[in-house]
Design brief:
The chain has about 240 residues and is α/β, with parallel strands linked by helices. The chain has eleven helices and five strands; from the N terminus they run E-E-H-E-H-E-H-H-E-H-H-H-H-H-H-H. The protein has one domain: Protein tyrosine phosphatase superfamily (Protein-Tyrosine Phosphatase, Chain A). Helix 2 links the parallel strand 3 and strand 4. Helix 9 packs across helix 10. The radius of gyration is 17 Å and the shape is globular. About 0% of the residues have low confidence.
């Protein structure tokens, strides 16, 4: 199986299948996908995604992003669009609220890190819905704009819930640096370090998400139980649905 699927309009559409869990099982192929924006899909791309059997897409973008660049699957008979992203930006530190400052690179790095610390809690309800849809037998795509930050954290949570070791979770996260072409989103006023801080995956960013979970909830297990609201029965069903 190919992890990255070649599409005409986007570059970061990937399969989360094949990863080995701590128990020796593997995540099922062609079940959970992560992606950059689905607003740029070509007609052929849409056919490819439908042929994969995808039934639901989880759009983690903010309301403004969804309005400016609507998903191509809105109104599609086969693929449901779940707009689970926040209607408004959470604060001025979010990735898409980047503005130039006197110390742009450091400011961008701090904003990105803070965003990652918040994602596990801002999107906990969305994670639970993803799990529920997968238990119901639906194949899903989770995406944001780049498929790097909000979608990257969501993908990391799905793999973590399934028991994939954290080292492997980080390896999957970092693949964005190989595949995403930045889609012409780099701003001309940005210096090279600022561009790297905003438009690249960095292990320290995802580490901040896990550190926030462990700081607020002690363990990932407590986070899943008390924040995402996943009980043992649901977790067992999720493993059954997505592992082989």
């Amino acid at each position: 199986m190919e992890r990255r699927l070649e599409l005409e309009g986007i570059t970061n559409f990937r399969d989360l299948g094949g990863y080995k869990t701590s128990s020796g099982q593997r995540v099922k192929w062609r079940t959970i996908f992560r992606s950059d924006t689905l607003s740029s899909l070509s007609d052929k791309d849409m056919e490819t995604v439908r042929d994969l059997g995808v039934k639901a897409t989880f759009d983690l973008r903010y309301g403004e992003e969804r309005t400016l660049e609507p998903s191509r699957f809105l109104g599609n008979a086969q693929v449901e669009v779940l707009e689970v992203g926040l209607d408004e930006r959470p604060d001025a530190r979010a990735l898409d609220s980047f503005d130039a400052s006197t110390d742009k690179a450091a400011t961008a790095r701090a904003w990105m890190t803070e965003g990652y610390r918040n994602y596990p809690f801002l999107y906990a309800d969305a994670y639970r819905t993803m799990v529920e849809r997968l238990i119901a037998g639906q194949k899903i795509v989770v995406h944001c704009t780049a498929g790097k930050d909000r979608a990257g954290t969501a993908a990391a949570m799905m793999l973590t819930i399934l028991g994939v070791p954290r080292e492997t979770v980080f390896e999957d996260y970092m693949l964005t640096n190989q595949y995403w072409d930045r889609a012409g989103r780099v701003r001309p006023e940005m210096d090279a370090q600022t561009i790297a801080n905003v438009f690249s995956a960095h292990e320290e960013y995802l580490s901040a998400a896990f550190a926030a979970i462990e700081q607020q909830c002690s363990t990932v297990e407590d986070y899943l139980k008390n924040v995402v609201k996943l009980d043992d029965k649901t977790l067992d069903a999720f493993h059954t649905a997505c592992l082989t």
